[in-house]
Fold this sequence. Notes:
The protein is 33% helix and 0% strand. It is mainly alpha-helical and 85 residues long. Helix 1 crosses helix 2 (42-56). The chain starts with 24 loop residues before the first helix and ends in a 29-residue tail after the last helix. Residues 58-85 are annotated as: Disordered. It comes from Streptomyces pilosus.
Amino acid sequence: MTAPSGGPAPQGRPQRKQVLLRLDPSVYEALARWANDELRSANAQIEFLLRRALAEAGRLPGETGPLPRRGRPPGGSSPGSPPPG
Length: 85
């Protein structure tokens, strides 16, 4: 498995698929507002809604991992931010 950069994928993190989605501008605006209300990106909101619809239809595969957590990934701090603690 390779990362988008062409190198090997990080250990323990499955590769995520990229999908081009064409939306009516008014649908996108409504989605973006909803995502903003939920403190998600439009992309995260789409994935959240798709997963929920798949689960409700009984079509979400059992091996599907959890949604990525909101916010910055755990680990190192960004430059200029105070150390945790």
